[in-house]
Task: inverse folding
């Protein structure tokens, strides 16, 4: 089962309607401030932390994200705010951009060997972006896998674990973006359809 924390993202709702609802694996959504209540029989295979408003330092209650990161030793993928939460949880830092970013941007993948990029035909992909912050200091034990004109930490990954943060929104970027999300789901041991 895929555990998804919704941080008030319209993108994750579109992803649910247009992609997840067509899949054969189980998934469950929890709001960012809702306790995670699962049956003892539930097997969590992976976690997705959605984008959303604000940042990890704002009054918005993001506790459920941190509870999920702390209590499950499974693959994790964070989008935008989820990416920033992963960084903060692992002692990284974020900063505000000079101007909000609200468009598709080309990012350059700097390590194509990672399994999250399997099947990509180029190391340059366009990803939908909508963010005010970026990871300014790499979290402990993480590396950068991609950069852009906006920041050098477009995609980060833990050195030893399948924990990924994407500053953009591959879940709504179609094509290459969706391919990377499918690769993540496969890393969770779940079957994903086309």
Result:
């Amino acid at each position: 089962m895929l555990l998804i924390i919704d941080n008030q993202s319209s993108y994750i709702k579109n992803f649910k309607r247009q992609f997840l609802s067509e899949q054969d694996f189980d998934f469950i959504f929890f709001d960012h401030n809702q306790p995670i209540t699962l049956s003892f029989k539930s097997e969590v295979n992976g976690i997705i932390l959605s984008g959303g408003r604000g940042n990890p330092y704002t009054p918005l209650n993001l506790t459920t994200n941190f509870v999920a990161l702390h209590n499950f030793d499974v693959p994790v993928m964070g989008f935008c705010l989820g990416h920033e939460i992963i960084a903060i949880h692992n002692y990284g830092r974020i900063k505000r951009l000079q101007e909000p970013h609200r468009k598709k941007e080309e990012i350059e993948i700097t390590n194509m060997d990672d399994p999250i990029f399997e099947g990509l035909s180029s190391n340059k992909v366009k990803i939908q972006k909508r963010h005010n912050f970026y990871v300014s200091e790499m979290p402990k034990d993480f590396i950068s896998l991609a950069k852009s004109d906006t920041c050098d930490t477009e995609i980060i990954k833990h050195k030893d674990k399948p924990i990924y943060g994407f500053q953009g929104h591959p879940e709504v970027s179609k094509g290459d973006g969706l391919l990377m999300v499918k690769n993540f789901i496969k890393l969770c041991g779940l079957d994903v359809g086309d």
The CA atoms of residues 80 and 167 lie 4 Å apart.
